[in-house]
Amino acid sequence: MTYGPTTSPLLDPARLGSHRLANRLVIAPMTRNRAEPDGTPTPLMAEYYAQRATAGMIIAEASTPNAEGQTYPNITALHTDRHEAGWRRVVEAVRAAGGGPVFVQLQHGGRVGHPDTSGLTPVAPSPVPLPGTIHTPGGPRPSVMPREMTADDIRRTVRDFASAARRAVDAGFAGVEVHSANGHLLHQFLTSGTNRRTDGYGGGVDGRIRFATEVVAAVAEAIGPERTGLRVSPGNTVNGIAETDTETLYPALLAAVSGQGLACLHLAYADPDRPLFHRLRELWTGTLIANPVLPADRLPADGGRAAGERLLAAGADLVALGRPFLANPDLVARIRAGAPVNDVRAKYFMYTGGPVGYTDYPTYRAEPVGGAGGGR
Ligand SMILES: Cc1cc2nc3c(=O)[nH]c(=O)nc-3n(C[C@H](O)[C@H](O)[C@H](O)COP(=O)(O)O)c2cc1C
Fold first, then answer.
1. Residues near ligand 1 with C-beta < 6 Å?
2. Which of 102, 188, 242, 280 has the most Cβ atoms closer than 10 angstroms to its Cβ?
3. What is the third-level CATH fold of 9-348?
4. DSSP 176-228
């Protein structure tokens, strides 16, 4: 690879509704477990996000809309005044650093939770436990049987999403992303392996998409559709999800939520070689954020640039990158300069806390001549 100034469509300015984005690069939501034990974002988190303010847009990490939805220790939350104040500091830090719009992801873990962490029995569409173990304050523990949500639980949870969304806007966020991906509660409702309900929230595709559809509608009503995004991960098997009808499920979900003027749809693990990507692009007339599939073990030397450009060529409007931004606060400048990227130090992703592997990734200019980045 030759290093030198370059142009890339990823660096072109873009719009998201009324927002002007300096470039088409979006930071994908990444849980980093650096919040206080009650879920309040810390000043260190404000520093982390402000370091990455040159991204066109930031989708801040999963934040739980109620205590029951907590997945892991030290994740962020958005259901108390304290949480809201902590997030306000984060948003203000990004704004002071000249950043673009910041959304926050709202995530309920459903069966991805543990009483040792939240003090509560996890809830889920059906009593089907998460396979294997889950991380708790005392380390990994066998997962527990979740409690099947009643109709009242469903109504209450939908309301909790809407109030968390209101708090997000009050904290200064430009909007929220409803998390219906990666095996969390909304995704658990979508798939028949985890949703064995016989009421109107289970059964065929129309029943299984209902909870996600209601959450999106309630959030859009609370804060406006132009502030509401949705993230999905068709076919992703993380957290024990096994979809059997991906090809019909997601077109049905998109049809159910479209027409409201939502801010964006975010496709995780978007693969332009899969026909489903093109089908969903055709169906979704609004802004499409696509998160490419990058190698799991190490970052590509171009930081995901080629994969991102392929997605733009295939019709995505914006490209979300996770780990490349995690390890490179100045990813945009590196792409512009054609500079090499730091690889991730994965052992600091979660559960370690503190600045190591979080706010200490070097910027390109700060590296010694010939240095290839922070490395491992
Ligand atoms: C440390 C870490 C935390 C993550 N947390 C979240 C999260 O809170 N919500 C979510 O939807 N995805 C989460 N993801 C998935 C990323 O958003 C992204 O889809 C994934 O890392 C693939 O993109 P990448 O190859 O650019 O990193 C996380 C990924 C990592 C590495």
1. 28-31, 61-62, 105, 179, 181-182, 231, 268, 291, 294, 304, 321-324, 349-350
2. 188
3. TIM Barrel (3.20.20)
4. EEEEE-TTSHHHHHHSTTT----STTSSSHHHHTHHHHHHHHHHHHHH-GGGE
